[in-house]
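Entry for the shared binder. Reason: the reviewer on the internal report wants the predicted structure included alongside the sequence.
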Amino acid sequence: MRAPNRLSLVLLLAACPALAMAVDDEAPSAEPDVTISKDGENFIQEYKANGFVYAVKITPKHGKPYYLVRADGTGGQFIRSDQPDMLIPQWVLFSW
């Protein structure tokens, strides 16, 4: 009777590190995903965490770079971090 209990305990202790590593692999990363693209003469960097865009950095050819951040946590409205009163419109002009 003691041998099966000891064997079960040994197997349980051996499986604990493997389970802990599996949980760590599924955890979201602390570092954001950054996508860099070029729009005309402007460089655009999108910062994403878990597939959610939370900030955009725009670096124009002439002038200072600026950030667009979410106005609220869920909507698609962005505001400039240096001018929080100015909303950036996102109207759909054409679609097909």
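Summary line for the report: DSSP finds one helix and six strands in the chain.
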